């Protein structure tokens, strides 16, 4: 059975169809000397070119979901400190990379995008935690009529959505788990994550796998059973050519897919 023909189409509607195409712009269609990553301008550019959008979401000190990747503010704003120690209003006043763009809320982002693009919302929930961010994101998605999916590395987050909002499309993120951050985890946990042993707990509808995991015999097996695989982050046409036979779509940056 081809992945696209999985019965979940009836549950997820257009979101399921747009999981397969078009390609997905990583943190929007941003450039080093133009629209910053995870900015409204980058999302507008992705919509204008007909791409899907991947973005990152975190919770502020006052419980709002905002679009930002890093734990700390320095790289994107030049300000010291952790994002979670600031309110949404404070963050909304910070310039991104010296531009007129600021840190947007998820609600404002989805209002801008509307129905123009499929949005993959990566929840930056620490591994094992679950609760406030998932609840806030689900409340926002209830009022959004465009196609969306939640993605992330935390299987407990996916399990929460499976139990509370099964109508929201879910994609489990994974990669090789061999970087400095992953080495802080116990070796057994790293091995389990790299082997996709968390799928049963997470109960995802698709997999979003790092390029360092592809091709993967385990992923090929899931895909043969009807679970699509999205590759990230693809940074050149040659990279995509090397894995496309094992994937159903790509999250890209640095070129136009």
Automatic annotation (TrEMBL):
Domain GP-PDE as annotated: residue spans: 21-257
Molecular function (Gene Ontology), one example: phosphoric diester hydrolase activity
Annotated GO biological process: lipid metabolic process
One Pfam family recorded for the sequence: GDPD
InterPro entries noted in UniProt: GP_PDE_dom (IPR030395), PLC-like_Pdiesterase_TIM-brl (IPR017946)
Protein's name according to its UniProt entry: Glycerophosphoryl diester phosphodiesterase
The organism of origin for this protein: Caulobacter vibrioides OR37
């Amino acid at each position: 059975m081809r992945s696209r023909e999985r019965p979940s189409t009836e549950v997820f509607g257009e979101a399921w169809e747009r999981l397969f195409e078009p390609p997905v712009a990583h943190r929007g269609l941003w450039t080093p000397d133009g629209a910053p990553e995870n900015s409204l301008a980058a999302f507008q550019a992705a919509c204008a070119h007909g791409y899907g959008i991947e973005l990152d979401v975190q919770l502020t000190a006052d419980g709002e979901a905002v679009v930002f990747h890093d734990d700390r503010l320095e790289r994107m704003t030049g300000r010291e400190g952790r994002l979670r120690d600031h309110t949404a209003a404070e963050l909304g006043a910070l310039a991104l990379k010296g531009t007129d763009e600021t840190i947007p809320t998820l609600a404002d982002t989805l209002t801008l995008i509307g129905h123009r693009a499929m949005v993959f919302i990566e929840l930056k929930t620490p591994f094992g935690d679950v609760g406030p961010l998932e609840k806030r994101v689900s409340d926002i998605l209830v009022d959004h009529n465009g196609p969306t999916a939640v993605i992330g590395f935390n299987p407990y987050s996916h399990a929460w959505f499976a139990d509370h909002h099964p109508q929201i499309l879910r994609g489990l993120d994974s990669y090789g788990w061999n970087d400095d951050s992953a080495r802080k985890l116990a070796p057994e946990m790293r091995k389990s994550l790299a082997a996709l042993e968390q799928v049963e707990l997470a109960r995802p509808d698709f997999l979003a796998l790092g390029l360092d995991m592809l091709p993967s015999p385990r992923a090929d097996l899931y895909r043969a059973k009807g679970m699509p695989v999205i590759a990230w982050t693809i940074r050149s046409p040659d990279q995509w050519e090397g894995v496309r036979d094992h994937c159903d779509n790509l999250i890209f940056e640095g070129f136009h897919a």
